[in-house]
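One example given next:
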Amino acid sequence: MPKIVEISALEILDSRGRPTVKAYCTLSNGVSSSASVPSGASTGRAEAHELRDKNSDRYGGLGCFQAIQNIREVIAPSLQGRDLLTQAEMDEVLLALDGTKNKSSLGANALLAVSIAYARTLAQHQKIPLYQYFANQVGHQVERLPRLTINLFSGGKHAGAQVPIQDILVVPLSAPTVREGLHHTWQVYQSAVKIAKEKYNMRWLTADEGGLAPSFSSLQELFTTTVDAIEKSRYIPGQDLAIAMDVAASHFYCENTYFLGSESLTGMEMSERLKSWVDDYPIISVEDGLAEEDWEHWPYLKSSIEGKALVLGDDLLCTNTERIQKAIEKNAANALLLKVNQAGTLTEAAQALKLARSAGWQVTISARSGETEDDWLADLAVGWGGDQIKVGSITQSERLAKYNRLLEIEANTGLPVKEWH
């Protein structure tokens, strides 16, 4: 039985040039692996705490030296020399060492980096693909690959807030494979680039996750331009490619009011506005359509658009079992946007996944706005049976690394993508 002989860490930079954490794990039999963790710009209040140094002399206070030190001086001494643990046992050790509910002692970025590095090391030790290791963790039989949801246009915190909505994504519905889905989306993206140049005189500039960010004059123009880009690519909106939207409503919500551009809307009015968009455009998924604490109106939104579009919770749920359970009881959503770093360890995220599945929800496995070139998220989405995967646009290496890994898994397995349902 090999032992854990070394746990170490390094501060690296994410896709926005901000520090993040990379952890390393080595076993006594020579097996060694590493993992890098992302960070988010649009964050929910219930997310696990990402530890930053708050030293204004380094990266404006965003440094991760303390998280690195916690791995080297607290986590590593507690693990080095131990026999192999299961993933649940490893994560239990990490949680006990931290001792706080929100991971504010050692930092969720420290805990998750070690948790995933250990998972990858065990997969190598067991000589199985990482996606199979993740599948074994949750008892899932891998039979299909997740369907793509790919950023086309961005606003809100991911761009210059030229529109309040954070992201418009396209979903390749008619493509039976990841390979074809990427090609369909590439064609739409290129059409959108041409429209942005011709209509807005905009150079090919991208937001945090690779989406285009023209200066739309209205939200209606945002939607009609998306439909136009699909049609200019010779596809049928709603049949070949549909629209998913990340509203991120918490960021324009204050004192029970939604400040949607020049408008001030109540929760009921915001719900009705979302319903009208779903009725008027081929929108099949609405993420964070309402604010994360506007529990009063989420059930109405769900009843209004259910059957036409997913009611997807991100900030509302924060991959947190307590909030997911509350949403189930209130009938407030029917889909979870799963972000592992919102939870802090793989085991906790897996518990959130199982709870959502027990309610019959769909699950979208998601990256963050601050990503790295690490591709473990693709394996996680496959292994945990994600219905969809949300990585970002089809530009920028930190996004393409995940898509390229999906292409590799597809080539190795021959599995088709899941049908939208």
